[in-house]
Predict the 3D structure of the following.
Amino acid sequence: VICGIWCFVASLLLLVISEVYNSSAVNGACARYAASKAERVGAEVASVLSSGLAVYDALDYAIQRKVYFEPLDYGTIQRALAPMFIAHEAIRSVDMAFIGRDSSITVRRRWKEGNSSVIQPSDEVLIIQSN
Protein backbone atom coordinates (compact mmCIF):
# COMPACT_ATOMS: atom_id res chain seq x y z
CA VAL A 1 0.00 0.00 0.00
CA ILE A 2 2.78 2.42 0.93
CA CYS A 3 4.63 1.51 -2.23
CA GLY A 4 1.52 2.17 -4.31
CA ILE A 5 1.00 5.58 -2.70
CA TRP A 6 4.67 6.42 -3.19
CA CYS A 7 4.48 5.46 -6.91
CA PHE A 8 1.31 7.52 -7.35
CA VAL A 9 2.85 10.60 -5.67
CA ALA A 10 6.11 10.23 -7.62
CA SER A 11 4.23 9.91 -10.92
CA LEU A 12 2.08 12.92 -10.06
CA LEU A 13 5.18 14.99 -9.22
CA LEU A 14 6.87 13.98 -12.46
CA LEU A 15 3.83 15.03 -14.46
CA VAL A 16 3.56 18.37 -12.66
CA ILE A 17 7.28 19.12 -12.90
CA SER A 18 7.40 18.23 -16.58
CA GLU A 19 4.68 20.80 -17.25
CA VAL A 20 6.93 23.47 -15.69
CA TYR A 21 9.58 22.78 -18.36
CA ASN A 22 6.99 23.14 -21.12
CA SER A 23 5.79 26.50 -19.84
CA SER A 24 6.49 29.93 -21.24
CA ALA A 25 9.04 30.65 -18.49
CA VAL A 26 11.46 28.13 -19.94
CA ASN A 27 10.79 29.34 -23.47
CA GLY A 28 11.42 32.90 -22.31
CA ALA A 29 14.70 31.92 -20.66
CA CYS A 30 15.80 30.17 -23.85
CA ALA A 31 14.89 33.21 -25.91
CA ARG A 32 16.82 35.55 -23.59
CA TYR A 33 19.88 33.29 -23.73
CA ALA A 34 19.73 33.07 -27.52
CA ALA A 35 19.38 36.86 -27.82
CA SER A 36 22.35 37.55 -25.54
CA LYS A 37 24.47 34.95 -27.35
CA ALA A 38 23.56 36.49 -30.71
CA GLU A 39 24.64 39.91 -29.45
CA ARG A 40 28.01 38.53 -28.32
CA VAL A 41 28.54 36.73 -31.63
CA GLY A 42 27.58 39.90 -33.50
CA ALA A 43 30.12 41.92 -31.53
CA GLU A 44 32.85 39.37 -32.27
CA VAL A 45 32.00 39.32 -35.98
CA ALA A 46 32.05 43.12 -36.08
CA SER A 47 35.48 43.10 -34.44
CA VAL A 48 36.88 40.62 -36.97
CA LEU A 49 35.42 42.50 -39.93
CA SER A 50 36.72 45.82 -38.63
CA SER A 51 40.20 44.25 -38.47
CA GLY A 52 40.01 43.49 -42.18
CA LEU A 53 38.81 47.01 -42.87
CA ALA A 54 41.73 48.42 -40.87
CA VAL A 55 44.19 46.49 -43.06
CA TYR A 56 42.46 47.78 -46.18
CA ASP A 57 42.61 51.34 -44.85
CA ALA A 58 46.31 51.01 -43.97
CA LEU A 59 47.20 49.79 -47.46
CA ASP A 60 44.95 52.38 -49.11
CA TYR A 61 46.62 55.15 -47.08
CA ALA A 62 50.09 53.93 -48.08
CA ILE A 63 49.06 53.86 -51.76
CA GLN A 64 47.34 57.26 -51.66
CA ARG A 65 50.37 58.88 -49.99
CA LYS A 66 52.62 57.22 -52.59
CA VAL A 67 54.57 55.41 -49.88
CA TYR A 68 53.66 52.07 -51.45
CA PHE A 69 53.83 52.11 -55.24
CA GLU A 70 55.96 49.09 -56.21
CA PRO A 71 53.94 45.89 -55.64
CA LEU A 72 56.90 43.74 -54.57
CA ASP A 73 58.39 46.26 -52.10
CA TYR A 74 58.53 44.01 -49.04
CA GLY A 75 59.89 46.65 -46.67
CA THR A 76 57.02 49.04 -47.33
CA ILE A 77 54.49 46.23 -47.00
CA GLN A 78 55.96 45.26 -43.65
CA ARG A 79 56.00 48.86 -42.40
CA ALA A 80 52.37 49.35 -43.48
CA LEU A 81 51.00 46.08 -42.12
CA ALA A 82 53.06 45.40 -38.98
CA PRO A 83 51.04 47.82 -36.82
CA MET A 84 47.81 46.22 -38.05
CA PHE A 85 48.99 42.73 -37.12
CA ILE A 86 50.00 43.96 -33.66
CA ALA A 87 46.77 45.88 -33.06
CA HIS A 88 44.35 43.22 -34.35
CA GLU A 89 44.76 39.64 -33.15
CA ALA A 90 42.07 38.43 -35.55
CA ILE A 91 44.36 39.05 -38.54
CA ARG A 92 46.30 35.91 -39.41
CA SER A 93 47.24 36.62 -43.01
CA VAL A 94 46.73 39.16 -45.76
CA ASP A 95 46.64 38.19 -49.44
CA MET A 96 47.30 40.89 -52.02
CA ALA A 97 46.83 40.58 -55.79
CA PHE A 98 47.55 43.21 -58.40
CA ILE A 99 45.66 44.20 -61.52
CA GLY A 100 47.72 43.65 -64.66
CA ARG A 101 50.34 41.48 -62.95
CA ASP A 102 50.63 37.76 -62.43
CA SER A 103 52.18 38.18 -58.99
CA SER A 104 50.55 38.11 -55.59
CA ILE A 105 51.82 38.59 -52.07
CA THR A 106 50.84 36.82 -48.87
CA VAL A 107 51.74 38.27 -45.47
CA ARG A 108 51.38 35.83 -42.58
CA ARG A 109 51.74 36.11 -38.83
CA ARG A 110 54.11 33.59 -37.26
CA TRP A 111 55.20 33.30 -33.65
CA LYS A 112 58.84 32.91 -32.64
CA GLU A 113 59.74 29.60 -31.08
CA GLY A 114 60.23 30.02 -27.35
CA ASN A 115 59.67 28.57 -23.94
CA SER A 116 57.35 31.33 -22.79
CA SER A 117 53.70 30.41 -22.42
CA VAL A 118 52.73 34.10 -22.70
CA ILE A 119 52.90 35.50 -26.23
CA GLN A 120 54.10 39.08 -26.50
CA PRO A 121 53.76 41.31 -29.60
CA SER A 122 57.56 41.22 -29.90
CA ASP A 123 57.35 37.44 -30.32
CA GLU A 124 55.60 37.64 -33.67
CA VAL A 125 57.28 37.61 -37.05
CA LEU A 126 55.70 38.63 -40.35
CA ILE A 127 56.47 36.31 -43.22
CA ILE A 128 56.05 37.87 -46.65
CA GLN A 129 55.86 35.52 -49.62
CA SER A 130 55.21 36.09 -53.30
CA ASN A 131 54.53 33.69 -56.12
Notes: The two ends are 85 Å apart (CA to CA). DSSP finds three helices and three strands in the chain. Residues 24-64 form the longest helix (41 residues). The mean pLDDT is 85.
